[in-house]
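Lecture notes, structural biology module. Today: joint structure prediction for complexes of two components.
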Amino acid sequence: MIRLALPKGRNLEPALAAFRAAGIPLLGLDPGGRSLRTRLEEGVEVLSLKDWDLPIYVEHGVADLGIVGSDVLAEVDGDLLVPVRLREGRSRMSLIGRSGEALPEPGGQVRLATKYPNTARRLVEDRPWGAEIVKLSGSIELAPLLHLAELALDIVQTGRTLQENGLVEIETVAEVAACLVVNRASYQRHRALLNEWIGRLEAAEVVS
Amino acid sequence: MKVSAALPTGVAALLFESAKRRRGMEQRLVARLAEAGYSEAILPILDYLEPYESLLTPASRGELYRFIDRDGEQLALRADFTPMLARLLAPRLHSMPLPLRLFYRGDVIRYEEERAGRQREFYQLGAELLGVPGEPGEREVLRLFLDALAASGAGADRPVQVVLGLAGCLDRLLLGCGAADPSALASALARRERSAVRRACPELVPVVETGLPERPEDLGEAEGRRLRGLLELRDELAGLFPDADLFVDLAEFARHGQDPRLTPEQGDRSYYDGLVFRAFAGPSALPVGGGGRYDRMFRALGAEVAAAGFSVSVDRLLEAVP
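The predicted structure, tokenised, for the full assembly:
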């Protein structure tokens, strides 16, 4: 049996679509349901996990593989294999500010609000300006809007929320994709099946 | 006064049954190593920092607990037994009869980010074989490693997985495909990132998928020969240890390059320069132990001797015992 961890939230739909396209239908799964673990006929058990918890479940082998955003992966820095990234559901990690604002002048010091403090710290390391990083857990856009911070580092999907609130993307920092992650030990144990799945995802051109 | 029983992050106190289990495991392992003719080395928990300067990578330096002693000397808590033993033996080797067979046990202390399964103080047990070059030394160490894993009782319900590789054997491919950043390509290979590897170096795709190149010669003549030797050793040991799953997977150790252009800034402990291996027991992706050949470390310390060894994490092994 192999255990697959699927994320709740924005990466779930692209993940299911990719598996369907690859001919891995996950029959019997009720994605909208409340079930936390579902045993499917194909010898697959599906766990439904929060994005932020998923890497630790896979690293510890509770799940053999999973789908998780590269934004989370970069932040928690688990020791996971990342064979492919889904094409659907891509977004970007960007520095956000009030419209009319630009990046700080060299030597400047600002406050930067984010859900991703480690990523933010690495980003600021290479900059000519400094930042005090403020970790928030949601509605990051509010921070620059209400002057809690000059900048925010967050995911931007369409940019509509920003526009409606008088905010702008000052700089795109990275592309964010949902990634297939695999436990290091499981990769040895289930190599044939995993290679087959990854091969099918590639053949269906839903990953890159 | 009410006293809290809280401990600092990453350390644990074992009482009663958990202490008994730890000691039981330790004794089983020690008995096995002693039987194989290894004698114990008892090493200090504190040492000068200076002898290790040339061996540290940015990552291993970041893990050290360092401080200034009252007399102004820079000290560090023991973070790894192998370099400590090496630096103590290197200046004395000329007066010692080779081969040397030594084992050690004790705590190592490393700064780790606070995460499940990552202790800052953990109990290690390991063995080092000095003065047996080439394949015979590697076979002895690997056999002893498999023996120790079997003696630990881990893997009684699911096979222990031992992954074997060769440090540096992908260097030629990694450097030869014209990648802009060969070190980043090595990291991508170690994470089995297919598309990135396919774009940069199609010859490495079979290594991602199967752990091996299409033909051993694809690695170059000398490396191809080493790989054939390793595959033979794997088959021989698989016959002797039917309860373990042995794989040769070169991608697993892609970051153990030998060429300076491939040295990743953050990375695995990079002192292995020949056979390299790690074992997984239970479901976790955190290895229960590993080792390999590290002749180069002694050379960096001014001694010429063949060296190979392994260590196991006693607590991770305990977690894997059903």
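Point to remember: Residues 87 and 129 of chain A are 34 Å apart (CA to CA).
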